[in-house]
Design a protein that fits this description.
binds nicotinamide-adenine-dinucleotide, alpha/beta, Rossmann fold, single chain, 326 residues
């Protein structure tokens, strides 16, 4: 039986990994304090898409992983999915940079623990926020390729303390391999979305607003609404990780992206169309919007045999169907 550790396992991404491995019969150790202002959900109330307490192979520790690392020295984990992070939506990243900087300590303590516990493989969740913001401006942007972060040459300024922490985690992953032989792969998800994502993220909030204003002439979105993101369905992200994790050992990074830019205005229009109306979409320029255009090149993912499966319109439809039933 495989033994899996998922830090931040009660969060949006973590719940999906828990489900995959619980269904396979693996022993899943999920460590998560269900931190305020994150997407974490207490398993005791059941999770939106399944109840982990239905599985005997689910072991939950409601605690900060840094404390858990001090108390557990298990040296027989087959895989660790290191997802624990103070993330929140854009407002959290912009307005609470020092709270988000906790990620520096979470990641440092992860690698210090790993040096002793020696898990067979770590999947480390970095982020597209690690990429240089200078390549994501309205006056000049391009699809981001993995080699645009070159630790031996040029790394560029990442997005706030969040991106900085992710960059540092990737650097530690490389050092952990070079100095201690610890095997890992670093993933840079772009805008992962799904039905059960926390409402502080644009995906559920735009879908729910499109539903709530059905039939009206206008619909509003954050920022100017022209800012563009690369939306990828969260199950596709999980597939991308599981298809590539055994092929990367040295902490090398892989995007999880579709290579398609969608502006918030386009997104809102699709959501409204799926609700059956065609409003004028207007940007509220006083809300945080982040970088102008963030999209991830897909060539390296294809080399690893991974391509996204769910189109953005289909993903929106899935979410609207679920929201209509609750
Ligand atoms: N969702 C995306 O599209 C996306 C994009 C880029 C990167 N990521 C990364 O993927 C990971 C998961 O993100 P998510 O979307 O599931 O966010 P989330 O907020 O839903 O989940 C993060 C989880 O980490 C937990 N956590 C916070 N501090 C912790 C600590 N000290 N110890 C243990 N757990 C702790 C939170 O309680 C929460 O359950 C994060 O590392 C995030 O940076 C996600």
């Amino acid at each position: 039986m495989q033994k899996i550790l998922i830090t931040g396992g009660a969060g949006f991404v973590g719940r999906r990994f828990c489900k995959r491995f619980l269904d396979q019969g693996a022993e899943v150790h999920c460590v998560d304090p269900v931190a305020e202002f994150t997407g974490g959900i207490d398993p005791d109330g059941g999770w939106p898409l399944f109840n982990p307490r239905d599985y005997d192979n689910f072991k939950f520790y409601q605690q900060d992983c840094r404390q858990w690392f001090k108390e557990h020295g298990d040296d027989d984990f087959d895989y660790v999915f290191h997802l624990a992070a103070m993330v929140g939506g854009r407002a959290m990243i912009e307005n609470h940079p020092l709270a988000v900087a906790d990620d520096l300590s979470i990641d440092a303590e992860y690698w210090q623990w790993a040096e002793k516990a020696k898990p067979s493989k770590t999947a480390c969740f970095s982020s597209s926020a690690a990429y240089p913001i200078g390549r994501q401006r309205a006056e000049g942007y391009e699809l981001l390729t993995e080699d645009m972060i070159a630790f031996d040459d040029d790394i560029g300024m990442p997005d706030m303390s969040y991106g900085w922490a992710k960059l540092t985690c990737e650097y530690l992953a490389r050092l952990a391999y070079e100095k201690h032989g610890l095997k890992s792969a670093c993933y840079r998800p772009f805008s992962g979305y799904g039905e059960d994502q926390d409402d502080s993220y644009p995906f559920p909030s735009i879908c729910k607003r499109a539903m709530a204003h059905k039939g009206e002439d206008t619909l509003t979105v954050w920022g100017t609404g022209d800012q563009m993101r690369d939306f990828i369905y969260i199950e596709d992200c999980v597939d991308g990780v599981l298809q590539s994790i055994d092929k990367i050992d040295d902490g090398d990074a892989l995007n999880l992206s579709t290579g398609i830019y969608t502006s918030f205005k386009q997104f809102a229009r699709i959501a409204a169309e799926e609700c059956g109306y065609e409003p004028e979409v207007i940007g509220l320029s006083d809300k945080p919007a982040g970088v102008f255009a963030r999209g991830g090149d897909t060539a390296k993912q294809k080399e690893f045999g991974f391509e996204y499966n769910v189109s953005f319109r289909d993903g929106i439809r899935k979410a609207l169907n679920l929201y209509q039933t609750v």
